[in-house]
Amino acid sequence: MPAPRNSAASARGRAVSREARLAALRKRATLLAEARAFFGERGYLEVETPVLARSGAPDAQLAQFALSDPMLGALYLQTSPEYAMKRLILAGSGSIFQITKAFRQGESGRFHNPEFTLIEWYGLGYDRERLIIEACALIARLAPSLHDKARIVSYREAFREALGIDPIEDPDDRLRDAARAHVPSAHELPLDDRDEILDLLMTHAVAPAFPTGALTVVTDYPPSQAALARLNARGLADRFEIYQGPMELANGFHEATRGGEYAQRFATEAAKRRARGLPDIPEDRRLLGALAEGDLPDCAGCALGLDRVLMLAVGATHIDEVLAFPIERA
Predict the structure, then answer these.
(1) Cβ atoms within 10 A of the Cβ of 105, count?
(2) Scanning 19, 119, 155, 194, which has the fewest C-beta atoms within 10 Å of its C-beta?
(3) For the chain, how big is the Rg over CA atoms in Å?
(4) What is the pLDDT of residue 148?
(5) Within 10 Å of residue 100's Cβ, how many Cβ atoms?
(6) Which residues, listed in sequence order, are joined to residue 68 by a DSSP beta bridge?
(7) pLDDT over 70 for what percent of the chain?
(8) pLDDT confidence of 121, banded at 50, 70, 90?
(9) Tens digits of per-residue pLDDT, 4-28?
(10) Bridge-partner residues for 74, per DSSP?
(11) CATH of domain 9-329
């Protein structure tokens, strides 16, 4: 994921009054009820999937919590419920959503806690545009101050506007120069991976230029950042991210559907992990096995960070302010 996300220890353990924590706790309960009502009105089925599983996400940018059980072997806390939810769709569940805990190692800072709450959903028959409309509607329902129409901008346009560079066509050297010019910490990094450079620039130089009073939807990512999104007619990833100012709220895909695509992308990410000296993560063979029996139905899926939306709803500036037990208090 890219850009360094660890904050100094002094930024954590913030002093938050008991009254403020209780107010955030009550507001969280309200948002949970509103989210469930939102999906219920649209005919989604609420589901639950494991947070502990035998495989994890192979994505090279994700650091996962790995556990070892003397009888079961290696187990992983899930970075999202994506794979299990897709297995349910393949089994005929229809459109589904869930509100669940997710875990990412080494992510700690103003917008990050290693354990966090996700709302993830998959709409059957949805394309990217329909999902963007629905995701923005959900955010506006949970944080009414963001009810204005969102601005949609391509990944390429966002980089051109903020930095005057083309993230799709410009050579690596030009991207490195931009990183060193706009991100002070870049001088301490090797900058030998194109996507890591782009993530660094997005986090530290592009997203901070987005307005805080409205949503910005970034679309058409480089194919190397497709994850499990399909590629569109222009060869770009048919995915989007939604921002409020520099804070990413949601990430959505028009999903790839064929098992062969999943196997190939899992292999690509595994190769990246090996090249970066990262530990191997077993691929989800149960998902691949389910896909071998038939393609995933046409659908689009989105993950929304509830804790970050709660920050907006109560006017918090740090994620610790909306967690009853941030990691330092857990």
Answers:
(1) 13
(2) 19
(3) 19
(4) 81
(5) 22
(6) 74
(7) 96
(8) very high
(9) 344 333 345 567 899 999 999 999 9
(10) 68
(11) 3.30.930.10
Tokens of 116: 């966090």
User: Is pLDDT of 3 > 50?
Assistant: no
Torsion angles phi and psi, residue 55, rounded to 5: -130, 165
Longest distance between any two alpha carbons in the chain, whole Å:
55
Q: Is the dihedral of CA 259, 264, 269, 273 positive or negative?
A: positive
Give the pTM: 0.93
DSSP conformational letter for 80: -
Alpha carbon distance 111, 27 (integer Å): 18
Cβ pair 238, 261 in contact under 8 A: no
Q: Any residues with CB less than 8 A from the CB of 21 and at least 6 apart, and which?
A: 321, 324
Domain ranges of the chain: 9-329
Reported as type and span, the H/E element at residue 196 is helix 194-201
Which of these, 74, 76, 137, 70, lies nearest to 103 by C-alpha position? 76
Q: Does the pLDDT at position 257 exceed 70?
A: yes
